[in-house]
Amino acid sequence: GPKEDIPTAMETIQERCQLAFEGVPDETRKAMPDGTTIFERVLPGPNRMYPDTDSAPIAVSDSEIDMLRSSLPEDVSVRVQKLDGWHVPQDTYGYIFRRNLFPLLETLVEKFHVDPVLAGVFLGHRLKYLEGHFTPSAPFHHERILDLFQYVKDKGMNANILPPMLRELYQHPNMDFDSILSAVGYQKTKPENIYSQIPILVKKFQEIRVSDQPAACIAWVMGQLHQLSLGNIDLADLRHRVSEAVYA
After folding, report:
1. What pTM was estimated for this model as a whole?
2. Would you say residue 75 has pLDDT above 80?
3. Residue 216: pLDDT above 60?
4. Distance CA 186, CA 177 (A)
């Protein structure tokens, strides 16, 4: 062999001679045709496995390390701080992290400008409930929720249509959104056509009422207009208008 390898060979021979005084070295040996054996490799252990002595070292540059580090997800503690800052209910955290829904929630907040609390409740309460009570007819992929929000946004509908649509979507993941709208009973209606029914319904309640409480009238009118209002107007605004009519 090369002359420069002689010192290393001498050190190895000396080391192996010393090991022989302690017993048979732990190693893998190769059988030769003449019945003798020669050293092949050490047995699996720290010296062999970290790194593998049978593989040539692979050089990794600092730039490659930085690139890989930049693609790592945020630490969970950082995400918890974000949820805290958004005032998302803490009882949603466990489900959101177990299902790896934080990126989805973040997209809803930052891309679709959904209120963080509503987004957290939508995923951590509503979706969790559906998962525990219904079996989808096909695999349900969480990315479909983004498609649902985009559909509602493109249609210019009020976001209160989302919960009933999610219920149908979860049970029938392959159903198209137009069919889901039909399934939830959506009717496209102008806001003024809904508001115009308020005085008529208030008067009707006064004719059939069994309670003199204004709250009972408000609840009854809201119940009559609830389905028609979904996707068309904000329910809080509707309630305000109903209350004004009742107390007028």
Report:
1. 0.71
2. yes
3. yes
4. 12
Domain edges within the chain: 3-49, 76-183, 191-247
User: In the numeric block, which tokens belong to residue 184?
Assistant: 């939830």
Is the distance from CB of 75 to CB of 81 less than 8 angstroms?
A: no
219-239: pLDDT as tens digits: 999 999 999 999 999 999 999
Task: Measure the CA–CA gap between 101 and 141, rounded to whole angstroms.
Answer: 11
The predicted pLDDT at position 225 comes to 97
Nearest to 225, CA basis, from 210, 212, 241 = 241
One-letter amino acid for residue 69 of the chain: R
pLDDT recorded at residue 50: 60
